[in-house]
Specification:
Length: 100
């Protein structure tokens, strides 16, 4: 399954300063080809994240202060971690935390 994943608001700094990634998620190997946000987050951490995972994830979810949009809709309206990703979805992570 292919997705577009975007990072902004400073989150891109954790991902090699690349704002947009076109990713191909592998078959899960368990006979279930369904990917959820719960599966995507650790995949991003393990495959794209370049530094400081604690600034992107806290436990099994994103850190507070990171806004997540799926196809321009707040993921909280879509079920957050349980949202089933669809081919060609666009997932955006926007950091709302800024140093002062």
């Amino acid at each position: 399954m292919q997705l577009t994943v975007e990072f902004s608001g400073g989150a891109e700094l954790l991902f090699g300063n690349v704002k947009q990634h076109r990713v191909t998620l592998p078959d899960r190997g368990d006979g279930d080809s369904v990917w959820t946000m719960e599966g995507l987050l650790p995949w991003l951490r393990d495959n794209l994240l370049k530094e400081r995972p604690e600034l992107f994830m806290q436990g099994d979810t994103v850190r507070p202060g990171i806004l997540v949009l799926v196809n321009d809709a707040d993921w909280e309206l879509l079920g957050q971690l349980s949202y089933k990703l669809q081919p060609d979805d666009t997932v955006v992570f926007i950091s709302t935390l800024h140093g002062g």
